[in-house]
């Protein structure tokens, strides 16, 4: 029967995995902590602004904005988890108990998982809205609330999973990046996130080709309005930004986790670990820009909040372009098409 090492120190597992622990603050440790704290604070402020904007503006009390608010809450949580990591890293790691180490990593896993699940949920709801030729403002409230709750259940489950799926009783399976995690868990977690990206790519690709095909049919009518072509162009920009941000921020870290999980001894994963984790955290800063700042009503609310003018959002409505949920009537069918910002 395998012996378990529950009572060993964190240093014991790090030494066994070959991951060096700093006994004192080195320049690179200080640089990473400063960068990490800066990113965390900016993530917290930007996502808090999104949440306050949705709460304060009654015109944003719609299911699609609930999803955006839930994404902002997940990213806010990610900022807090990364802040906790920065305050318990470097030489402080050796002072952590096994329980606190799992708490540190679990918070990070839960927050990043919640962010990814919310991104996937938003993609799925946009797809359903487009295929049903339905404004985003008419999304069923009950289903959206169920998705929001489900995203946090999944995130919590993934955070608790390493407490049972670890290498405390099998040191040969310990990973190098996270020396108390099992390599099989890292592999599964990385593959799960990469699968989420592939699903997002497939969903947005289907949305794009559907809208482009519909626009091509509409262009054959004499009453084709130039705004429809602008809608297609805006759609392309949105899809490229969403998928591009996800690829740039998430893929490097997931590939490194996958390589470590598969036991690639020749891969120097430890050399890039902290940088790729910081890049993944930066996605929580990009999300408010991609999903909220491209919306005219949200931008208007941001301006009022930043100027300290917390007046009713029913006044001074933006006039430049359609808002999410606004109808665009199609000449050939009379059915509404969702807005270009998706």
From TrEMBL:
GO cellular component, one term: endocytic vesicle
InterPro entries membership: GPCR_Rhodpsn (IPR000276), GPCR_Rhodpsn_7TM (IPR017452), LPA_rcpt (IPR004065), LPA_rcpt_EDG4 (IPR004066)
Annotated compartments: Cell membrane
Keyword RNA-binding part of the UniProt annotation: no
Region (Disordered): 316-342
Record's keyword annotation contains Cell membrane: yes
Topology of this chain in the membrane: Multi-pass membrane protein
Classification via Gene3D superfamilies: Rhodopsin 7-helix transmembrane proteins
Keyword annotations: Cell membrane, G-protein coupled receptor, Glycoprotein, Membrane, Receptor, Transducer, Transmembrane, Transmembrane helix
Membrane spanning residue stretches: 30-55, 67-87, 107-124, 144-165, 185-211, 232-253
GO biological process, alphabetically ordered: positive regulation of MAPK cascade; positive regulation of Rho protein signal transduction
Tree of life domain: Eukaryota
Location of the G-protein coupled receptors family 1 profile domain: 46-291
GO molecular function annotation: lysophosphatidic acid receptor activity; PDZ domain binding
Stored PANTHER family: G-PROTEIN COUPLED RECEPTOR
Protein family: Belongs to the G-protein coupled receptor 1 family.
Protein name per its UniProtKB record: Lysophosphatidic acid receptor 2
Organism this protein belongs to: Vombatus ursinus (Common wombat)
């Amino acid at each position: 029967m395998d012996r378990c090492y529950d009572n060993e120190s964190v240093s014991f597992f790090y030494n066994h995995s070959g991951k060096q622990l700093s006994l004192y603050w080195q320049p690179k440790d200080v640089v990473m902590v400063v960068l990490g704290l800066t990113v965390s604070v900016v993530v917290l402020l930007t996502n808090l602004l999104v949440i306050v904007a949705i709460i304060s503006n009654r015109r944003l009390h719609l299911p699609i904005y609930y999803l955006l608010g839930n994404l902002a809450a997940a990213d806010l949580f990610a900022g807090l988890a990364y802040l906790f990591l920065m305050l318990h890293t470097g030489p402080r790691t050796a002072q952590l108990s096994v329980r606190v180490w799992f708490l540190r990593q679990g918070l990070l896993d839960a927050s990043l998982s919640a962010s990814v699940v919310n991104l996937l949920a938003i993609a799925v709801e946009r797809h359903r809205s487009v295929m049903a030729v339905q404004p985003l403002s008419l999304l069923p409230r009950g289903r959206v609330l169920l998705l929001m709750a489900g995203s946090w259940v999944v995130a919590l489950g993934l955070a608790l999973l390493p407490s049972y799926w670890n290498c405390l009783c099998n040191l040969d399976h310990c990973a190098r990046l996270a020396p108390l995690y099992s390599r099989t868990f890292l592999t599964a977690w990385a593959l799960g996130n990469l699968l989420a990206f592939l699903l997002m790519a497939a969903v947005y690709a289907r949305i794009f080709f559907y809208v482009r095909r519909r626009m091509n049919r509409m262009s054959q009518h004499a009453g084709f309005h130039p705004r429809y072509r602008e809608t297609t162009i805006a759609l392309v920009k949105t899809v490229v930004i969403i998928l591009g941000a996800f690829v740039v921020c998430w893929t490097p870290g997931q590939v490194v986790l996958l390589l470590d999980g598969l036991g690639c001894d020749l891969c120097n994963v430890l050399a890039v670990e902290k940088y790729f984790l910081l890049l993944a955290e930066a996605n929580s800063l990009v999300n408010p820009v991609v999903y909220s700042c491209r919306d005219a009503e949200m931008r208007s609310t941001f301006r009022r909040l930043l100027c300290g003018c917390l007046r009713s959002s029913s006044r001074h409505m933006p006039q430049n372009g359609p808002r999410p949920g606004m109808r665009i009537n199609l000449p050939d069918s009379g059915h509404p098409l969702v807005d270009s910002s998706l």
